[in-house]
């Protein structure tokens, strides 16, 4: 009897359900500019350390969740704080803020988020120790901030990232697809777009990962019909619009490097009236189904002419016609009125 075939988690729908259950949906970031700077620093630091792309995405997840939990903690008055004031408030519980600037406290938070993500995703021999980051901070400060991040996250580190979904979809790719190249393109797309607020919460990691997968197919010139059918069968039809929007936004972010992979779903809006003829296809054939029909001049009849024409075309009863004839016989003409008035004067 043959042994049972080994089933990889990326080919099992139960694994997709597990990823959905590990989603951490957060509100849209408030401090967009500051978040972009911090997330860019995290992504570059992970790249410099030689970590996996998933480590950078998980570090960003921890960073976003930590700031949200710090700002919206129960019985906390930090909801209306600015980013700088919030960071200094967090740092005051860990370091001496008279000796550290706002940027240094942000760096401390980012370091701890990277360290936690690396411990979870990187091999043990490659995962860094907190003591490796003691250039600007003491080991006690690093450890205290790490505990601060863990407490705000409730020690829950099982966050789904777009890279997890990429491995799931690549495992279901049809024969003939270069999986290694597809994963490389997806990693590049996720790394470039993670810093953008449009790809932060509340957009799910599942939509982000599937959008990156669809964009990678466009970048390689591959047909997407079977892939989109896989998306529909597993994700559902209700996610289709968000999926294509994510792929379009990824293509816009990487339009300079991959112009052929940008597949907009709709035409852009005109910037002025002069641009309208260039974007709209007019047709002189009134029976043409496509395009906008060109209006004819007779459709714009002045109102007063239209009213006269309507009165002339309206049917009249014999009694009304006889009454009008009698009134015409009694009513004096305009010349008679003018002559009488002149003679009197």
- Enter the CATH topology name of the domain at 24-152: Cyclin A, domain 1
Task: Look at the structure and name the CATH superfamily of the domain at 24-152.
Answer: Cyclin-like
Reported CATH architecture of the domain at 24-152 = Orthogonal Bundle
User: What's the gyration radius in Å?
Assistant: 35 Å
| Basic shape | globular
Q: Could you report the average pLDDT, rounded to the nearest whole number?
A: 77
The separation of the N and C termini measures: 129 Å
What is the H-and-E element order?
A: HHHHHHHHHHHHEEHHH
Strand order of the biggest β-sheet: 1-2
* Count of helix runs: 15
Taken as a percent bin, the fraction of beta residues is under 5%
Summarize the amount of helix as a percent range.
55-70%
């Amino acid at each position: 009897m043959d042994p049972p075939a080994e089933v990889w988690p990326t080919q099992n729908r139960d694994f997709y359900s597990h990823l959905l259950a590990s989603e951490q949906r957060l509100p849209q970031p408030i401090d967009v500019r500051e978040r972009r700077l911090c997330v860019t620093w995290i992504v570059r630091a992970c790249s410099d350390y030689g970590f996996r792309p998933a480590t950078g995405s998980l570090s960003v997840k921890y960073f976003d969740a930590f700031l949200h939990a710090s700002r919206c903690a129960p019985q906390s008055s930090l909801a209306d704080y600015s980013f700088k004031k919030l960071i200094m408030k967090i740092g005051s519980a860990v370091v001496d803020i008279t000796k550290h600037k706002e940027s240094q406290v942000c760096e401390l938070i980012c370091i701890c988020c990277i360290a936690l993500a690396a411990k979870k995703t990187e091999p043990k021999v490659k995962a860094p120790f907190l003591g490796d980051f003691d250039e600007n901070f003491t080991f006690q400060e690093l450890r205290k901030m790490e505990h601060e991040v863990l407490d705000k996250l409730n020690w829950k580190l099982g966050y789904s990232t777009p890279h997890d979904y990429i491995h799931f979809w690549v495992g279901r790719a049809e024969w003939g697809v270069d999986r290694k190249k597809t994963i490389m393109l997806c990693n590049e797309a996720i790394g470039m777009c993670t810093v953008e607020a449009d790809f932060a919460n509340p957009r799910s990691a599942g939509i982000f990962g599937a959008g990156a997968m669809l964009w990678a197919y466009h970048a390689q010139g591959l047909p997407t019909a079977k892939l989109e059918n896989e998306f529909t069968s597993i994700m559902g039809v209700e996610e289709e619009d968000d999926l294509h929007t994510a792929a379009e936004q990824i293509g816009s972010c990487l339009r300079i490097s991959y112009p052929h992979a940008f597949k907009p779903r709709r035409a852009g809006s005109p910037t002025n009236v002069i641009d309208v003829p260039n974007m709209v296809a007019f047709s002189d054939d009134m029976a043409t189904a496509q395009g906008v029909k060109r209006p004819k001049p007779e459709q714009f009849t002045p109102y007063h002419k239209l009213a006269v024409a309507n009165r002339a075309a309206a049917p009249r009863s014999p009694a009304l016609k006889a009454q009008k004839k009698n009134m015409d016989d009694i009513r004096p003409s305009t010349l008679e009125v003018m002559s009488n008035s002149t003679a009197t004067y």
